[in-house]
Each structure stands twice: as C-alpha cells, then as structure tokens.
Write a structure and sequence with these properties.
Layout: H1 2-22, E1 33-37, H2 79-86, E2 108-110, H3 132-150, H4 152-161, E3 163-167, H5 170-177, H6 184-188, H7 191-211, E4 217-220, H8 229-235, H9 243-267, E5 272-275, H10 277-286, E6 301-302, E7 317-318, H11 335-347, E8 353-354, H12 358-380
Parallel strand pairs: 1-2, 1-3, 3-4, 4-5
Antiparallel strand pairs: 5-8, 6-7
Helix pairs in contact: 1-12, 2-11, 3-4, 7-9, 10-11
Protein name: GDSL esterase/lipase
Keywords: Hydrolase, Lipid degradation, Lipid metabolism, Signal
Organism: Lactuca saligna
Length: about 400
C-alpha cells in the first residue's frame, strides 16, 4: 500500500502541475487585446501628438460614459471598446497614455493613430502621426516593458494568446490616392495597379506583426468608401455613392481577402481573420430603417450637404438622437453602427467573417486547452492497478482522488 500511495501522490502532483499549466483561461484573467490602425480604431493616441487629426473636443464623446471627448472618433464607444467588452476586458488604453503602466499593461494596448495608412506617405498632411512601422516598433517596446514586469516567457505567452485588431487601408485612398486631383500616387499608378501595390505593402506589415508574436488577428476591409457623408457631400447629386471610391473598395476588399488566405497558407494556420466591413455597412446602408436608423447618408455631426463638409466641432449641426444615425461624423460610424459591426464580428456567418467569427475563435481556443489537457493526462496517467485507462475521464481518479500530500 505504501508503494501505491506514494505512486498516487506523484500522480496527484503531476496532475496538479498539468492543471496549472493547461488550465483553461480563468474568467478573471481575460486575454490581452492589441489594436493597430487608423481613426476607426484610435482610442486617443493622437491626443498626445501635434496633429490636426484629433477627436478631443466636444461633441466627440457626447454619449461616452464620461461624456468627454476621449480622442475616439465616435459619439461614444468605438469598435475596439465593444470588442473588449465581448472578451470580458476593460478597454485598452492608448499606448501613448501616461496611465498605461504596471498591471494595466497586461490588458493590452491600443497603438492606432488617426490619419495613418498602409503607406508611409498616407496622411502626410496630418504631419505628426504614428505610422504603421512606428506602431509596430511601439509593440516591440511594449513587450520589453511587459517582460520587465512578468518575465520574457509569460510575455511571449500573453502575446500569443492575445486578440489583435488591425484596421488600415481606407486612408490610402481618401488621404492619399484621392486626396487631391492628380495626386502623386495617382500619377504613379492606375487604380488597378495601386490596389495590388498597397495590398503587398499590407502583407509586409502583417508578417511583421506575426514575427512580433501575434497569432489571432482580425483584419478589417474598408467600408463602402464612396458612400460616407464626406463623399456624398462632394460627389453626389441624388444620394448615390461616389463611383471612383466605390470602385476602389470593390477592387481592394477581395484582394485583401486573397492576401490573408495566402498568408495563412504560408503560415500553415488561421492567424489572420478577414472582417468584411463592407458587407456589414451595406446591410444597414441599404436598409437603415431595419436597424433603427432614420438615415445612413447624413452625418449626425457636421455641416453642409449631408453634414459631410469639414470637421465635427462645437459649432456643427448636431443630431439629438445619435442612435438614429449610421454616421456620427463625415467619415466615422456612430456607436450604434459600431455595435452592429461588432455583433457581426462576434457571430456573423462566413459572408461576414472569413474563415470564422470571433465567438468561434474564442470557443476553439478554450476547447484547444481542454483537449491538450486531456491528451497530457491520457498520456501520463497509469491507474493504481498498473492499467492504462482508455482515457483520463474513464479512469476512477476523478471520482476517487487520493490526495496524500
Ligand atoms: C516606411 O517606413 C519604414 C521606416 O520608417 C521603412 O522601413 C519602410 O520601408 C517604409 N515603407 C515604404 C513602402 O517605403
Ligand atoms: C458564428 O457564431 C455563431 C454563434 O456563436 C455560430 O452559431 C455560427 O455557426 C458561427 N458561424 C461561423 C461561420 O463560424
């Protein structure tokens, strides 16, 4: 009996170690979340920069719990905030915020900066913004800071397990190719050749993100660029979307999807998940009333036709009920529209999420952990009679734990 109880003690020790290492993610410890990209996902980095691309004055943030202009380009929450809520986490702080310190680093970080694009020359008029290469440098610096806090191994695991969101591309059209008539890029490339060029540059950015440890990355396409209030104001006579920008997003989005598929094939894993933002927008833009909107053409905040001219400022027209507008300002969706988008990210079919939605990713992850735990236990558990049970769950160990520690 002495031998077998010693043996079972060893087993108990082993199994507790295994549970420790392979325990499914505890509720109290949500995964980290990292955000890269432009104004659609910037949560306030530009507040700390000398740039005109900013959202730190009212009425921005009018419906945010703080009722303050936080730097988010929304009346309230933006897409990253709503994703954080879905994964059970606090909103990630802007990387440039002095509040992002200590334990708060473990929640993740938002590196996005309004005005930037895939290309370095996108948004040059905004002067001092954090372009994609610098966002990735900051991600590296972030990991060094976290390593100092929890060690290199745990930091690597935190980054591997994290969810990442990347939103880029819209500005490479609006604030580059089509910024002015006869722009430098439009003289250099036809639209047909510009799109593959920016897609190939995007691929390099995503590869770098992979090299820095990202393993679960949501990549959004562009919305229907020609249908935003800013474009309607400039190009539309009867509310029809601007043809050139619609053509641009029709070329861009399928090529982005193809690039993500080929990247996943090269990596041998579904690291990158395509988010069909255009389809999500098209749903509520083609039938706004079905989603509770009175309009998907007129911005809530702005001036001129469609409230699409200039910036949203304290002097602008402001709609009384933001939930009735698909667009908050001339370019950016309202919180209500962001909620519809994040619902689809979470639960949409393959028409919206390629190859799978976020709830599937989260479920697969927790399932993967329990399968690994099962395999480890099956591999190493030998019952007290020296029999090898078919599986851990089949053994009597769970029903009659013999703890002799
Ligand atoms: C953008 O800038 C980074 C460094 O700041 C450089 O490494 C990269 O090659 C540039 N990209 C292009 C397309 O020029
Ligand atoms: C997306 O999520 C929903 C709800 O969790 C699920 O029923 C559905 O099958 C998922 N679709 C895909 C394509 O993953």
């Amino acid at each position: 009996m002495a031998v077998s109880s010693g043996f079972s003690s060893l087993l108990v020790v082993f199994i507790f170690l295994a549970l420790e290492v392979f325990a499914p993610r505890a509720e109290a410890d949500p995964r980290a979340f990292f955000v890269f990209g432009d104004s659609l996902v910037d949560s306030g980095n530009n507040n700390y920069l000398v740039t005109s691309a900013r959202a730190d004055a009212p009425p921005y943030g009018i419906d945010h719990p703080t009722h303050r202009a936080t730097g988010r380009f929304s009346n309230g929450y933006n897409i990253p905030d709503l994703i954080s809520m879905r994964i059970g986490s606090e909103p990630t702080l802007p990387y440039l915020s002095p509040e992002l310190n200590g334990q708060k680093l473990l929640i993740g970080a938002n590196f996005a900066s309004a005005g930037i694009g895939i290309l370095n020359d996108t948004g040059i008029q905004f002067v001092n913004i954090v372009r994609a290469p610098l966002q990735l440098e900051y991600f590296k610096e972030y990991q060094q800071r976290v390593s100092a806090l929890i060690g290199a191994e745990k930091t690597k695991q935190l980054v591997h397990d994290a969810l990442v969101l990347v939103t880029l591309g819209g500005n490479d059209f609006v604030n580059n190719y089509y910024l002015v008539p006869m722009s430098a890029r439009s003289r250099q490339y036809s639209l047909q050749n510009y799109v593959p060029f920016i897609i190939s540059e995007y691929k390099k950015i995503l590869k770098r993100l992979y090299d820095l440890g990202a393993r679960k990355v949501l990549v959004t396409g562009t919305g229907p660029l020609g249908c935003v209030p800013a474009e309607l104001a400039q190009h539309s006579r009867n509310g029809e979307c601007a043809a050139e920008l619609q053509k641009a997003s029709s070329l861009y989005n399928p090529q982005l999807d193809d690039m993500l598929t080929s990247l996943n094939n090269e990596l041998g894993s579904h690291v990158f998940i395509g988010v069909n933002t255009k389809q999500m927008h098209n749903d509520f833009m083609s039938n706004p009333r079905a989603y509770g909107f009175v309009t998907s053409k007129i911005a809530c905040c702005g001036q001129g036709p469609y409230n699409g001219i200039g910036l949203c400022t304290p002097m602008s027209n402001l709609c009384p009920n933001r939930d009735q507008y698909a667009f908050w300002d001339a370019f950016h969706p309202s919180e209500k529209a962001n909620r519809i988008i994040v619902d689809q990210i979470m639960m949409g079919s393959t028409k919206y999420m390629n190859p799978m939605n976020l709830s599937t990713i989260l479920a697969l992850d927790s399932n993967k952990w329990s399968v690994e735990l099962q395999q480890i236990l099956d591999l190493h558990y030998v019952d007290l009679n020296g029999r090898i049970p078919n599986s851990f769950s089949e053994s009597r160990f769970l029903q009659e734990p013999q703890v002799h520690l």
